[in-house]
Design a protein that fits this description.
Length: about 80
């Protein structure tokens, strides 16, 4: 019931024509899930999701850093 935004691990690669070697690298080094989007609806093979929660999150903790450096108190206004 969720569509996942995945970040592949591009640091490790198998530069080879051997499919088994490429698969072993893919399995050895995991991808990261950056966000899970609730699926609002599906039309054929297309999914409708809301990007707002992902775009409006403070993933880098900017508001906390500003507060710690006494630059004011900030928060995301949903």
């Amino acid at each position: 019931n969720k569509l996942l935004l995945m970040q592949p691990n591009l640091k490790y690669r198998a530069n080879t024509d051997n499919a088994l070697e490429r698969k072993s690298i893919e399995q050895a080094f995991a991808q990261s899930v950056l966000f899970g989007f609730k699926i609002l609806s599906k039309k054929g093979e297309d999914y409708i999701i809301d990007l707002t929660p992902f775009l409006m999150e403070d993933a880098h903790g900017v508001s906390n850093r500003l507060k710690k450096s006494k630059e004011g108190t900030y928060k995301i206004d949903a």
